[in-house]
Design goal:
The structure is a single chain. By secondary structure, the chain is mostly beta strands. The chain folds into 2 domains: about 150 residues, Jelly Rolls; about 70 residues, no CATH class. Helix content is about 10%, strand content about 25%. The strands form 3 sheets. Strands 3, 4, 6, 7, 11 and 12 form a 6-stranded mixed sheet that branches. A 4-stranded antiparallel sheet has the order 2-1-5-8, with no helix packed on it. Strand 9 and strand 10 form a beta hairpin. It starts with 9 loop residues before the first strand and ends in a 24-residue tail after the last helix. Keywords: Signal. InterPro entries: 6hp_glycosidase-like_sf. One of its GO terms (biological process) is carbohydrate metabolic process. This is Peptidase A1 domain-containing protein.
């Protein structure tokens, strides 16, 4: 099974905010009526107001990548802190989470509306659009500091200004082997029992023919699955890796296998 977060619980989701209205005692006349106009949170720890139900997608049994959008109720500035109960995975690499921060729902995408890395030249950027985390198997607290978990891999941008925070299962290919993308990586021990394993696809991202039964890259599915993935995911390599690998296994008589099942000879399943 590809890595998913099976038992992760978020017990605290908060950020250290800026100034507090409660700390201001009054104006020069001793009056405090103007406090109702102060937009700053009245505590230094700000908890979310809720999760946007309309933006919840996927579950571990779906092909859609699970995601949620957390609403803090107003624009805030700070460093996010999350307590994780635990995570589980049966593949190489820890389950990965990605984060995008936005001030409005209108432009809520998989890319933050602003990061400090946006202003850095190539080669010095910490992230490119989203923050990443590899979720540990044991209980742990993660703070979104401007740093990387492993050298220059699995990085987050630190302080953000936002109202909405999108969280989804996923990982950058460049963050391997420390974390893995959700649900689409080919591993020999996770394919079906029909001789599907091929070393040339090991560890690459693909579109599977069947989420549970076949779990085999099949060129016949790409006509629809590729168009769907182009709309829902920014990952063209999911499609590209399959025909490239199949054509690399073309026989001397010109025959190209349609799938990795028994890839070196004609299969009774795919003549």
């Amino acid at each position: 099974m590809t890595p998913i977060i099976a038992k992760t619980s978020i017990t605290i989701l908060a950020l250290g905010a800026g100034c507090s209205a409660a700390a201001v005692k009054g104006d020069i006349y001793g009056e405090r009526t103007w406090h109702k106009y102060v937009r700053s949170p009245n505590t230094s720890i700000v908890k979310p107001k809720g999760i946007l139900a309309a933006n919840i997608t996927g579950n571990p049994d779906d092909l859609d990548i699970p995601s949620i959008v957390v609403d803090f109720g107003q624009n805030v500035v700070g460093v996010v802190s999350i307590d994780f109960g635990q995570s589980t995975n049966s593949s190489q690499g820890l389950p990965g989470l990605k984060f995008a921060f936005r001030e409005t729902q209108q432009f809520l995408t998989n890319t933050s509306d602003f990061t400090r890395s946006d202003n850095l030249p190539d080669g010095q950027k910490i992230i490119t659009g989203s923050d990443q985390i590899a979720v540990a198997n044991e209980p742990a607290t993660w703070k979104n500091n401007a740093s990387c978990q492993y050298g220059e891999q699995v990085c987050s941008d630190g302080l953000h200004g936002f109202r909405y925070m999108k969280i989804w299962l996923g990982a950058l290919e460049s963050d391997a082997p420390y974390t893995q993308p959700y649900g689409d990586t080919f591993f020999a021990n996770e394919t079906d029992p029909q001789d599907s394993a091929t070393p040339t696809l090991e560890g690459k991202r693909v579109i599977f023919d069947g989420a549970k039964r076949n779990r085999d890259p099949y060129v016949g599915d790409l006509a629809i699955a590729s168009l769907t993935s182009y709309l829902s995911h920014n990952a063209p390599e999911l499609t590209r890796n399959i025909p490239v690998d199949l054509t690399n296994h073309q026989r001397e008589d010109g025959w190209i296998p349609p799938a990795s099942i028994k890839i070196t000879k004609k299969s009774v399943h795919h003549p």
